[in-house]
Design goal:
The complex is a heterodimer of chains A (about 160) and B (about 425). Chain A is elongated, with a radius of gyration of 18 Å. The model of chain A has no long low-confidence stretch (mean pLDDT about 95). In chain A, α1 packs antiparallel against α2, α2 crosses α3 and α3 packs across α4. Chain A is built from 7 helices and 4 strands, in the order ααααβααβββα. In chain A, about 45% of the residues lie in helices and about 10% in strands. Chain A has about 160 residues and is of the alpha+beta class. Chain A has a 4-stranded mixed β-sheet with strand order 2-1-3-4, covered by helices on one side. Chain B folds into 3 domains: about 210 residues, NADH-ubiquinone oxidoreductase 51kDa subunit (Rossmann fold, 3-Layer(aba) Sandwich), CATH 3.40.50; about 80 residues, Ubiquitin-like (UB roll), CATH 3.10.20; about 90 residues, Up-down Bundle (de novo design (two linked rop proteins)). Helices cover about 45% and strands about 10% of the residues of chain B. Chain B contains 17 helices and 9 strands. A 5-stranded mixed β-sheet of chain B has the order 6-5-9-7-8, covered by helices on one side. In chain B, β2, α7 and β3 form a beta-alpha-beta unit. The chains are: A alpha+beta (about 160), B alpha/beta (about 425). The interface between A and B is large, with 43 and 59 residues.
Chain lengths: ~160, ~425
């Protein structure tokens, strides 16, 4: 089983790492794509994952840590089975994002930045996801969900296992 | 008006190679392959195409900065890191007309003698990434990308690179740092990317929409494109209109269109019969305009003359119910969060100003706060490596200067917004 505490890619995954590295004039260019891959495989980017990835690039773990902590899409702690990211930027604010965020915290019983106790959902707020025509909106894993109302949020939550 | 960028948006299969070809796609590369590279650049110059990502820099002129006769590898990098609040037009292009971007990339690559292109797409754009990846695969399978494209001897590869969540990576040198596997810290210019860009080599960074315009310019001529616009900017462009309009969405219009026309003719006016209060005309960094300042043309120079900027052409409409201090707090929170931390004036001031805007909204504002915000904002302007902080100063100063009474009343009342 993939384990963020003791991360090892399979041979196939290592081959994918080498393929990604070959696409760039300097293999270091593949660092973000490989970190995405690592997060998909191991669930989040632990310090051990950072060290393992650093080894695949001949980089220092400190460099990888600096990169991981700079970007919002890399999770440094285990996340829920689903991640809900609610936009709180200008248009979504105008269209009622605050009410949507409040509704989600009440329904999930957690604050922004937390994961529900059953491990189902991690709730975050984010800056503009650039789908302002559908404001208020949020991202649920890979999907954008827009024109949110409390009812629509309830339906979306009901569909998450 | 004839649609250019959006001509196929209504078709369910507009993202496919088959549909793109059926509507004239990939005929411009045939023309471009028959042209001298310098002639392609000249044609783009004459079209008055200006960068549609935010800075409105003349595209042909940018391409001409690639050193002549250089044998170094040259890279074409597409900025698909759409992130300017209020902007969503590149998402539509990526999902509904990805082949226009790919064809434009091939033509731009011919012009600058590049054999490797990158599309830097924001990590949150999963669906656009999937659609674009499919289109790139189709183009490879059809011999439109890769080695010896259509027997011309020209090689060009495209790599799609996913970002990981950082607004600053939309700034072109921050983007290049990120593409190189680093945190997205902008770099001091000069050297400009055209001289020393990605991986230390000459690089052109262009926005998605800018490059998607190129096949049309090559096919129909620079004069045609230039004639759609003003003396200094050609074409139509995509406006992202959101907020309190009846029908928000992407609107294609000539750059000579007015802000009033966008709101009232194209987007159905203000929702629920309410009154207009203010408009942010070009993404969150553009200084705000009041309801009586909307008779401006939506080209780069028109908005500059009105004291604002066209930026990414993201139009955010505020009706009379909006609290401007609250809006400032939201915008200030964004800049505080997204400052990359490299330059002291930006790193510190964005945090200070957010905290002051927050206490004003919470009912704890002090009467000197407004002048302090404006003072801090103006002192930092122009002192940083990239344009991020200057972009933040636009809203900080304009929200307060144009709606000072509202801020003062809130501070005097001692109650929150």
């Amino acid at each position: 089983m993939p384990d963020a505490a003791n991360p090892r890619f399979t041979d196939e995954q290592v081959a994918e790492v080498r393929r990604l590295q070959s696409l760039y004039p300097d293999k270091r260019g593949a660092l973000l794509p490989v970190l995405h891959l690592a997060q998909d495989v191991f669930g989040y980017v632990s310090l051990e994952v950072e060290e393992y990835v650093a080894g695949l690039f001949d980089l220092s773990p400190a460099h990888v840590h600096e990169v991981v902590t700079f970007y919002t899409l890399f999770f440094q702690r285990p996340k829920g089975r689903h991640v809900i990211s609610v936009c709180q930027n200008l248009t979504c604010h105008l269209m009622g994002a605050k009410g949507i965020i409040q509704h989600l915290t009440e329904r999930l019983g957690i604050d922004v930045g937390e994961t529900s106790s059953d491990g189902r959902v991690t709730l975050t707020t984010v800056e503009c996801l650039c789908a302002c025509e559908q404001a208020p909106m949020m991202q649920v894993d890979d999907r954008y969900e827009g024109l949110l109302t409390r009812d629509k949020v309830d339906r979306i939550l009901g569909g998450l296992t | 008006m004839e649609k250019i960028f959006t001509r196929n948006f209504h078709l369910a299969d507009s993202h496919t190679l088959e549909r793109y070809r059926a509507t004239g796609g990939y005929t411009a590369i045939g023309k471009a392959f028959g042209m001298e590279p310098a002639a392609i650049t000249e044609e783009v110059k004459k079209s008055n195409l200006r960068g549609l990502g935010g800075a409105a820099f003349p595209t042909g002129m940018k391409w001409s900065f690639i050193p002549k006769g250089s044998t170094a590898p040259k890279y074409l990098v597409i900025n698909a890191d759409e992130g300017e609040p209020g902007t969503f037009k590149d998402r539509y292009l990526l999902e509904r007309d990805p082949h226009a971007l790919i064809e434009g990339m091939i033509i731009a690559a011919c012009a600058i003698d590049s054999h490797l292109g990158f599309v830097y797409i924001r990590g949150e754009y999963v669906e656009p990434w999937r659609v674009l990846s499919g289109a790139v695969r189709e183009a490879y399978a059809a011999g439109l990308l890769g080695k010896n494209i259509q027997g011309t001897g020209f090689d060009f590869d495209v790599v799609i690179h996913r970002g990981a969540g950082a607004y600053i990576c939309g700034e072109e040198t921050g983007l290049l740092s990120s593409l190189e596997g680093k945190k997205g810290w902008p770099k001091i210019k000069p050297p400009f990317p055209a001289i020393k860009g990605a991986f230390g080599h000459p690089t052109i960074v262009n926005n998605v929409e800018t490059i998607a315009a190129v096949p049309h310019i090559i096919n129909r001529g620079a004069e045609w494109f230039a004639a759609l616009g003003t003396k200094s900017q050609g074409g139509t462009r995509l406006y992202s209109v959101s907020g309190h309009v009846a029908n928000p969405g992407v609107v294609e219009a000539p750059v000579t269109t007015t802000l009033r026309s966008l709101i009232y003719d194209h987007c159905g006016g203000i929702r629920d019969g309410r009154r207009l209060k203010a408009v942010v005309p070009g993404g969150s960094s553009a200084p705000i305009l009041t309801a009586d300042e909307i008779d401006v043309t939506m080209d780069a120079d028109g908005l500059k003359n009105a004291g604002s900027m066209i930026g990414s052409a993201g139009v955010i409409v505020f009706d009379e119910t909006v609290s401007i201090p609250e809006a400032l707090m939201v915008v200030a929170r964004f800049y505080a969060h997204e400052s990359c931390g490299q330059c002291t004036p930006c790193r510190e001031s964005t945090g200070w100003i957010y905290r002051m805007a927050h206490r004003i909204v919470d009912g704890h504002g002090r009467k000197e706060d407004l002048d302090t915000i404006i003072d801090i904002a103006k002192r930092g302007a122009g002192t940083t490596i990239c344009a991020f902080y200057d972009g933040a100063v636009g809203p900080y100063v304009s929200y307060i200067e144009k709606f000072r009474d509202e801020f003062e009343a809130l501070i005097r009342s001692g109650h929150g917004a």
